[in-house]
Design a protein that fits this description.
Helix content: over 70%
Largest sheet: none
Structural class: mainly alpha
Distance between the termini: 42 Å
Shape: elongated
Radius of gyration: 18 Å
Number of strands: 0
CATH topology: Tetracycline Repressor, domain 2
Order of helices and strands: HHHHHHHHH
CATH superfamily: Tetracycline Repressor, domain 2
CATH class: Mainly Alpha
CATH architecture: Orthogonal Bundle
Strand content: under 5%
Length: 173
């Protein structure tokens, strides 16, 4: 990827995350990136193409989390890995996650396909642990993670370690 293309993606991610996708024009992005607006169109066609490129980059981050969790054979280790996700979001990835959350809060864009591999791992883990309704339990965990990630992104919860311990304890981990 060229340096200019990276500048555009970084500027767009920052502006989309801070000001919202709808409120951010390609002109603002070009100014923040120090490039011409035409260069944005040349590399990404339009604002939607730019958003797609950012989301694809973010999906690669999610895939890494999935790969990490899928390496465990013990279902409790899988659960522990997944339950830890929101507490381990690196600071440099916060803009991507803020954007991802803001898109679902501000529009009808809810990226279910991004969480599908995690859902599958959770269902498998809960099945192996003989939970009565593994699908519902997996959905409950995803909802819990969603809430925790929101709190982590907006302001770090004061008792993060205690919260993680409580969740782990709920699942016998």
């Amino acid at each position: 990827m060229t340096e200019k293309k990276e500048q555009i993606l970084d500027a767009a991610l920052k502006l989309f995350a801070e000001q919202g996708y709808a409120s951010t024009s390609t002109a603002k992005i070009a100014k923040a990136a120090g490039v011409s607006e035409g260069l944005i169109f040349r590399h990404f066609e339009n604002k939607e193409g730019l958003l797609r490129a950012i989301m694809n980059h973010g999906k690669a981050q999610i895939d890494q989390l999935y790969k990490q969790a899928s390496t465990f054979s013990n279902p409790k280790d899988v659960l522990a890995s997944i339950l830890s996700f929101p507490f381990l979001i690196p600071k440099d990835q916060h803009p991507y996650w803020k954007l991802s959350y803001s898109l679902k809060w501000q529009s009808d864009i809810y990226l279910n396909d991004m969480s599908e591999p995690i859902r599958t791992l959770l269902i498998d883990a809960f099945t192996k642990l003989a939970y009565q309704n593994p699908e519902a339990e997996a959905e409950a965990v995803l909802l819990i993670l969603d809430g925790i990630a929101t709190a982590v992104l907006l302001k770090k919860p004061e008792h993060s370690v205690s919260i993680l311990k409580a969740i782990m304890q709920k699942y016998g981990i």
